[in-house]
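Handout, page 2. Input:
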Amino acid sequence: MAQQDGPEPPPNLPEHRTTTMEKGRFCMAHCSCGWRGPARRARSQARTDAERHAMR
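Output:
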């Protein structure tokens, strides 16, 4: 049996692919579904925003 890295998303929900983008002094999280997080000065906080969104 093949080992999986984690549970697969349900087939009827789109997969969320998040990234962070920098604009000047700020970093923002973006998702393939169109969601955008608030501008943050801390990259780590923007990554946390993205992780929380992907878990929804």
